[in-house]
């Protein structure tokens, strides 16, 4: 009996592997590869499909060894987390249904653009009405909820909390509204109390995620247009000045750009890692270089 179960499971695994490979080929061919653009070079692209993509289609953060991801299937009240080995590109860990019943029972169903700092994942979480935004803290090693969360309900967040980013130099966590943000909202990182706002030099619309590096906050935008054009803007933390960093075209079928993390490479160039989700079965992790 046990032998029969083992054989059946072996064949199921093979069929699933072949199906995954086929879907990878199909979605990759349909999606295509974004062309280089002036000022930014596509360095690398990794594709994830099916159950892997389901924990990657929202947020992206990183440390030296791992990428951390978040995904959401709202119909199932499922917010998931993932962990990718940066050397191999392998999804080495995932946490399905990362939102406990403590939150899902109150209508929370969406984990947005996450941030990483000091062994912790900062996860912005929205309820269905987007009225009571929270930030949940997860252990980056285990992907388990630590039991700590912060209520981020302030007058400046009137449509949820789509993303967050950690300013490790100044000790703040930043976020904003999704639509037509006119300011960045700053919280004290040590206790998540409201600190101040940073007025922006121009409104920024449809912010999916943000990441901090060297005095600048980089925002990944998903413009609501019919082509595949996506944009990355920077915000000067001291002045609130908004500047276009680069524009790219994701090509292929409809794609929603999501998470972003930014770091400085050994050669001095700035590297952008961006998660692009095809809103069905595939997620593309793309690395861009500027400078």
Please tag this protein with its features.
mainly beta; 5-stranded antiparallel β-sheet; 4-stranded antiparallel β-sheet; 2 helices; 12% helix; disordered N terminus
Low-pLDDT segments, ≥5 res? 1-31
The total count of strands amounts to: 21
Shape: globular
Structural class: mainly beta
Main sheet characteristics = 5 strands, antiparallel
Terminus-to-terminus distance: 61 Å
Number of helices: 2
Mean pLDDT across every amino acid position: 86
Radius of gyration: 19 Å
- Strand percentage lies at over 45%
Please state the oligomeric state of the protein chains shown: single chain
| Element string (H = helix, E = strand) | HEEEEEHEEEEEEEEEEEEEEEE
Helix content: 10-25%
Please provide a written account of the structure.
- By secondary structure, the protein is mainly β.
- It has helices at 2-31, 101-104; strands at residues 41-49, 59-62, 66-73, 78-85, 91-95, 108-111, 115-117, 120-127, 134-139, 145-151, 165-167, 172-175, 181-188, 194-204, 207-213, 216-221, 229-236, 242-249, 256-264, 270-277, 282-290.
- It has two helices and 21 strands.
- The radius of gyration is 19 Å and the shape is globular.
- Mean pLDDT is 86; it is low at 1-31.
């Amino acid at each position: 009996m046990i032998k029969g179960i083992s054989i059946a499971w072996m064949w199921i695994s093979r069929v699933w592997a072949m199906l995954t490979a086929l879907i990878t080929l199909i979605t990759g061919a349909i999606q295509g590869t974004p062309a280089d653009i002036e000022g930014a070079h596509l360095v690398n692209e990794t594709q994830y499909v099916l159950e892997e993509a389901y924990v990657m289609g929202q947020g992206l953060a990183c440390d030296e060894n791992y990428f951390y991801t978040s995904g959401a299937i709202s119909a199932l009240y499922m917010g998931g987390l993932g962990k990718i080995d940066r050397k191999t590109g392998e999804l080495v860990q995932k946490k399905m249904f990362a939102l406990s019943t403590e939150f899902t029972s109150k209508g929370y169903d969406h984990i947005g653009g996450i941030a990483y700092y000091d062994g912790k994942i900062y996860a912005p979480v929205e309820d269905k009405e987007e009225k009571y935004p929270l930030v949940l803290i997860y252990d980056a090693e285990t992907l388990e909820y630590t039991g700590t969360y912060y209520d981020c309900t302030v007058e400046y967040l009137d449509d949820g909390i789509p993303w967050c980013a950690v300013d490790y130099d100044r000790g703040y966590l930043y976020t904003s509204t999704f639509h037509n943000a006119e300011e960045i909202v700053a919280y004290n990182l040590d206790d998540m109390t409201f600190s101040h706002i940073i007025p922006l030099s121009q409104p920024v619309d449809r912010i999916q995620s943000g990441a901090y590096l060297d005095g600048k906050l980089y925002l990944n935008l998903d413009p609501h247009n019919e082509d595949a054009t996506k944009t990355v803007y920077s915000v000067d933390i001291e002045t609130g000045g908004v500047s276009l960093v680069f524009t790219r075209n994701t090509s292929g079928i409809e794609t929603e750009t999501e998470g972003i993390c930014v770091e400085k490479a050994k050669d001095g160039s700035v590297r952008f890692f961006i998660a692009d989700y095809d809103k069905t079965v595939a997620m593309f992790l793309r690395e861009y270089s500027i400078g």
